Amino acid sequence: MKRKLQGHYVTVSTAGEKVRAFVPSPLPPRPPIEWSPELRTKFDAAHVAIGKLDGISTFLPEISILLYVYVRKEAVLSSMIEGTQSSLSDLLLFELDMEPGVPLDDVQEVSNYVAAMYHGLKRLEEGFPLSLRLIKEMHGILLSKGRGNNQTPGEFRRSQNWIDGTRPGNASFVPPPVDQVMPCMDKLEWFLHDRPGPTPPLLKAALSHVQFETIHPFLDGNGRLGRLLITMLLCEQKLLRHPILYLSLYFKTHRQRYYELLDNVRLTGDWEAWIEFFAEAVTATATQAVETSKHLVDLAHEDRRRIAALGRASESTLKVQGAMMARPVTDSNWLVEQTGITPATVNKCLRHLQRLGIVQELTERKRNRVFSYKNYLQILNRGTELPA
C-alpha cells in the first residue's frame, strides 16, 4: 500500500553545508497496515516457524550449549554487515586469550556484541523492560572497547550523522536532527510499551526495527543494535523462550533489498512490502535454525556412538566431546577445568578424538595446543564464511 511520506524533512546545517534531515512520524503507521491475503499468509507462516523453533528449543538437551554458540554466530554475522572480518573461530580463539587471524579490533567488536547481548537478556530475565535506558546500557557495552569507544558509548548522539556518502551532501540518508532524536526515541519507547494501543509482538518487532534504523540515535553501532533489538523484543514479548532467532544472515544475504525497503517505507509508506520481507526473513531463519539444531544434535549423537566403541576410554572421552560442544574451538587447559579430568587423561581423550576424525588440532606445537570440533564447527559456520 502506498501512503504519503512517513515523516517530514527539516533543513539542518552540518559539516559546512545545508541538508534535509528526515524526521519519521510516530508508530503505528497511518492508515493502518493493509493485510492482503498473501501478506497474512506469509505473516502467519512466520508465526508458525517461530513456534516450531521455540518448541524444539524446549526439547533440546543441549539448549544452553546451542545458545552459547548461536549468540556468537549472530555476533559475527551482525558485525560482518558493518565490515568486520572476524570469523566464529577467530572469536572463540579471542575468548581463549589467543591471537586470532584477523585484526584485534575486529574481534573486539564482535566480543562487545556478545557482552551487550548477554547484558540485555539478563536485564529482561530480571524483569527490566525493553526501554531507552536498557538500549543505552547495551550500546555502552557495544562500544566499550576497541573501535567506536570515542563515539559517546551509551549516549544518544549530540551531533548530526548521515548514512553512506563522504559528506552530508552526498549521503543516501540523513536521520533526524539532534533536537529531534530524544522526542523520536520517546515515541518509539511508547510504541514498544503498547501506547497508544497494543501491537502483536512480531509486527511490533518489524515496525520498530525500521523506526530505530530511521532515527539512527547513536553515532555508531546503530545497525548492530537495531538487529539485536528484534530478538530482544521477541524474548521480552514471550514469543521466544530462548534467544535463538537472529535475522542478520538473511539481511546480509539480501542486503540491497533490505535497504531498498527501508527507503521505500520512509518515502512512500509501503510498510506492507517491508512486513512481507520481514516475515520471509523470520520464516527462512527460524526454519534454518531448526534444521541446524537437528544437524548438530544428530552429529553429537553419531559421535557419541563412535566414542562408545572405545571401551574403557569412552567415559572420559565423552566428557571431553560434550565440553567441546559448548566450545568447539578450545585448548586442553579449558577442557581440564570443565571436565575435572586430569591433563594427561584429557590429552589421551583428544588423541582418541583425533583418530576418530572428530577433533582436529589447529596448532602444531607441544604446548598450548588448540583443537576444533571440526564437523560441529562446520555446521555452525554456514553463512559466516569470509569472502576469499
Quaternary state of this entry equals: single chain
Structural class: mainly alpha
Number of helices: 15
Helix-strand topology string: EEHHHHHHHHHHHHEHHEEH
CATH level 1 name of the largest domain: Mainly Alpha
Report the uncertain regions.
none
Summarize the structure.
The chain has 388 residues and is mainly alpha-helical. The protein is built from 15 helices and five strands.
Explain what you see.
The protein is built from 15 helices and five strands. It has 388 residues and is mainly α. The chain has two domains: 7-291, Fido-like domain (Fic-like fold); 309-380, Arc Repressor Mutant, subunit A (Orthogonal Bundle), CATH 1.10.10. The protein has a three-stranded antiparallel beta sheet. The chain has a two-stranded antiparallel sheet with strand order 1-2. Strand 4 (359-361) and strand 5 form a beta hairpin. Helix 4 (104-125) packs parallel to helix 8. It is globular. It starts with 6 loop residues before the first strand and ends in an 8-residue tail after the last helix.
